[in-house]
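Quick one, tokens below:
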């Protein structure tokens, strides 16, 4: 019962901190991690330690599926070079830099452990960065690059992490030994995700009941992740392939009456999982600190210095790669023709290089380091690994998270909102298709619909885009009328002219009408 009570308290506190972050324009994971660290040192606070396998399955799997489901394959193809550079080269640069720093600070540390530390702290969590960037109108291409990176960088870092631990336990391996693991991890995981999506899609779309459909979706999400990890595949790559296949596959379309509540539930669940994850990140400081003081011969001050150096190297190596890549592209642009020239700027490179906040994957990977080696001896430097992971996560969330918005505003980056242009183009074409479908109908209803749909076509085909994207013809007038109708239905219920069931039915109808009148902004 006490655990449940603490969960309720933490959720309420997380909601307040997230609202505060929204108002001040900071990424909410930063404030949640700060709040969790504060809770950790309360006298009566719970002493919860993250189970790494549970943390990855519970917190990463649904959040990753939600992000991958909305990912644009077109944008990934258009930005594959910078995304691949971040996923492979930026992660690799961080691993090398951190490994060199660890071995220099602690000469007795085996290279395999030093590489494992680099792989643990290498993958950024772009969710916090994109949350801020969407508030300040950053160029869409930068968002696409960061979101594409966030889907795949965990996979590359965890692959290196596995190789390092395998080398430590089994000894140095040859290239021929690593290649089967690489092929299985990459191509096997992608193939498994696609196959599982094809097999499970008919089951998830078979029910027209919202609650049953949601249960199946969440159950299959966790099942796919657990199955991939059980057979030695990459849960991250499998989940990305699974989600993108599910999103773009055939099968019956989900009706609006199901899609709206399903998306609302997913949004709420993803927020709750993110909130708990980052609160728990902060709460790990106390057990890590206590174990470090009692379970290692390294003085705490030396361990703290090492962790701070690792934090600095992790930030600097990403900055080095991104700005180096930006400089190369800008140099090539000088020789390119105006037609083939790519739109790049130093400001975009600075933002991408600074958007390196780490998250739950880094901490879970650190906790996944075994406590003992196969021979029964304690795993060397494990407490220092945990402290380095925590300091990198916490330090990047605070340092980069709280300065991200001011930096973006200072650089004055913007674009011409290509998404809004595509939305207006799409509206013009789809509503023209609606008009064509009822062109031969001379009924009164068809004439009214033609007037309404033609107004939508003209509004979005015009060059006057000063109105909000969600505005529809007559929207303000419709919302004013719907508001009057809503007040009337409340009066009817209060006067007992209608009962509660009729009241809820009418309110639901008015809600749908308000959404269709542009009331979702």
């Amino acid at each position: 019962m006490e655990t449940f009570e603490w969960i309720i308290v933490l959720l309420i506190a997380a909601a307040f901190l997230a609202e505060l972050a929204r108002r001040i324009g900071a990424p909410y994971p930063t404030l949640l991690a700060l709040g969790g660290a504060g809770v950790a040192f309360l006298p009566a606070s719970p002493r919860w330690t993250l189970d790494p396998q549970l943390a990855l399955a519970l917190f990463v799997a649904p959040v990753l599926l939600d992000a991958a489901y909305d990912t644009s394959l077109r944008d990934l193809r258009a930005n594959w070079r910078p995304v691949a550079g971040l996923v492979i080269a930026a992660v690799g640069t961080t691993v090398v830099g951190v490994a060199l720093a660890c071995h220099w600070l602690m000469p007795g540390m085996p290279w395999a452990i030093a590489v494992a530390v680099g792989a643990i702290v290498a993958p950024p969590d772009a969710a916090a960065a994109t949350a801020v960037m969407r508030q300040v109108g950053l160029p869409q291409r930068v968002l696409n690059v960061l979101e594409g990176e966030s889907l795949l960088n965990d996979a590359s870092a965890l692959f290196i992490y596995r190789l390092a631990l395998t080398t430590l336990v089994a000894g140095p391996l040859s290239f021929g030994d690593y290649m089967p693991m690489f092929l299985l991890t990459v191509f096997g995981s992608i193939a498994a995700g696609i196959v599982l999506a094809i097999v499970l899609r008919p089951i998830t779309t078979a029910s027209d009941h919202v609650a049953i459909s949601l249960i199946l979706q969440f159950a299959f999400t966790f099942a796919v992740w657990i199955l991939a990890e059980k057979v030695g595949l990459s849960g991250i790559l499998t989940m990305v392939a699974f989600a993108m296949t599910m999103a773009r596959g055939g099968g019956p379309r989900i009706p609006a009456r199901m899609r709206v509540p399903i998306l609302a539930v997913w949004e709420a669940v993803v927020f709750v999982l993110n909130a708990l994850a980052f609160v728990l990140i902060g709460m790990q400081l106390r057990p890590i600190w206590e174990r470090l003081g009692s379970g290692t011969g390294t003085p705490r001050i030396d361990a703290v210095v090492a962790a701070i150096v690792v934090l600095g190297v992790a930030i600097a190596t990403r900055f080095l790669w991104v700005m180096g890549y930006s400089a190369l592209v800008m140099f090539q642009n000088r020789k390119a023709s105006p037609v083939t020239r790519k739109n790049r700027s130093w400001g975009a490179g600075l933002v991408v290089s600074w958007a390196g906040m780490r998250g739950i994957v880094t901490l879970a990977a650190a906790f996944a380091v075994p406590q003992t080696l196969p021979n029964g001896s304690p795993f060397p430097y494990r407490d220092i690994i945990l402290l380095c992971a925590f300091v990198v996560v916490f330090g990047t969330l605070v340092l980069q998270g709280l300065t991200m918005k001011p930096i973006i505003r200072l650089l004055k980056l913007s674009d011409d909102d290509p998404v809004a242009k595509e939305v207006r183009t799409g509206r013009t074409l789809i509503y023209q298709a609606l008009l064509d479908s009822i062109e031969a109908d001379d009924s009164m209803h068809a004439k009214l619909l033609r007037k309404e749909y033609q107004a939508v076509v003209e509004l979005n085909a015009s060059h006057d885009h000063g109105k909000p994207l969600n505005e529809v013809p007559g929207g303000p007038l419709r919302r004013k009328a719907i508001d009057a109708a809503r007040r009337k239905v409340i009066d009817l219920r209060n006067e007992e002219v209608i009962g509660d069931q009729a009241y809820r039915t009418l309110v639901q109808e008015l809600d749908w009408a308000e959404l269709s009148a542009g009331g979702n902004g």
